[in-house]
Design a protein that fits this description.
This protein has 14 helices and 13 strands. It is α/β, with parallel strands linked by helices. It is globular and about 65 Å long.
């Protein structure tokens, strides 16, 4: 009897003690469903598709891409969250995920693992034939008619909305903010003259600038940048110094999210494929063409960044009166330093 017990114990140890390695060897053995939390054509959608296509070759399975915009990213996030946490359901996301808590749409940063690929600068742009030839022209129009100059964004409470709000605070003006389900429809609204300007990423408009359809007025970051087809575009902070603080720790990034309790062995396989994709010549060429910054962050390094940014984003959102939930009640501290982040 004692012998049988020992044999059974060893068998169970083999089965369960070795399961992590077994998952690692078996994953992935079927297609991966990627839910992109914004509409087609925006930078989150484009980069999620670029990266997943390259990762297919490394992982030997297909990524089935689905756009599921809505609820400030919460619709797609909850689709992934409510699926089995086995690595076969992935969220294609951006820095908007840092607002999940204060927007009350999905689990917060501490419940996810992040695979951060690239980053792009923010911009305010107008039609090339717009009467606003400079950012000062736009500011003067907003001062003359407070709340009447329409500026589109990818959604209320998202980064590009908050960037525009920070800008208007710094310039002492008031826009009429028009939200859309992603940057692509927000840009389309400008092209169709539904709005006067758009707040989005520089990457998302660069082809429109090259083709002469749109004109960038100002970069909503602490530093300006060169935009192909236009030239150097100044930072709003250089023109209106009061906006500098508001832009300091608000950055765009794009990548993937997995629930934190996905098996480590699965996250290792996924993470390795992600890192190889970032270094792939095809992706490197796109980084160069799209004029984005390569980040390639995973694990603790990515978590430190998003924990810091969640603090900044949540409290700025709260201070602007946009947050649906109080960050203090959510346990989100103010002014998290990078060294303090988990």
């Amino acid at each position: 009897m004692k012998y049988i017990t020992v044999v059974l114990s060893l068998a169970l140890m083999f089965m369960y003690g070795g399961c992590d390695n077994q998952v690692s060897k078996e994953y992935p053995h079927k297609n991966i469903f990627l839910y992109i939390f914004s509409s087609q054509g925006g930078s989150t959608d484009i980069w999620a598709r670029y990266l997943s296509k390259v990762m297919e070759d490394e992982m030997g399975v297909k990524f089935i891409c689905n756009n599921l915009p809505g609820a400030n990213g919460g619709l797609a996030a909850m689709k992934v969250w409510n699926a089995p946490h086995d690595g076969y359901t992935v969220l294609g996301a951006s820095e908007t995920s840092l607002f999940f808590g204060v927007n009350d749409v999905a689990p917060m940063v501490d419940k996810w693992d992040f695979f951060i690929a690239v980053s792009s600068s923010g911009v305010i742009a107008v039609l090339d034939k717009s009467p606003y030839h400079s950012i000062q022209d736009l500011v003067n129009a907003a001062k003359k008619a407070p709340g009447l100059v329409k500026i589109s964004n990818s959604g209320m409470g998202k980064l590009w909305h908050i960037k525009a709000v920070q800008f208007e605070k710094g310039a002492d003006i008031k826009f009429q903010h028009i939200p859309y389900n992603g940057s692509a429809p927000a840009i389309s609204a400008l092209l169709s003259k539904e709005v006067d300007a758009v707040s989005c990423s520089a990457e998302e408009i660069h082809e429109y600038v090259r083709s002469g359809l749109l004109r960038p007025l100002v970069i909503t970051e602490t530093e300006g940048m060169e935009i192909t087809g236009h030239g150097f575009v100044k930072s709003a902070a250089d023109i209106y110094p009061k906006v500098a603080k508001g832009f300091e720790n608000l950055h765009q990034w794009i990548g993937f999210l997995l629930p934190e309790d996905v098996p480590d062995s699965v996250k290792i396989v996924f993470g390795n494929a992600f890192k190889k994709a970032i270094s792939n010549p095809v992706i490197q060429e796109q980084i160069k063409i799209q004029k984005v910054k390569k980040l390639g962050l995973t694990g603790k390094e990515a978590k430190r960044l998003v924990t810091k940014m969640q603090s900044e984003a949540s409290w700025i959102s709260n201070d602007l009166g946009i947050a649906k939930r109080d960050p203090k009640k959510l346990g989100i501290p103010k002014n998290v330093e990078m060294s303090d982040a988990n």
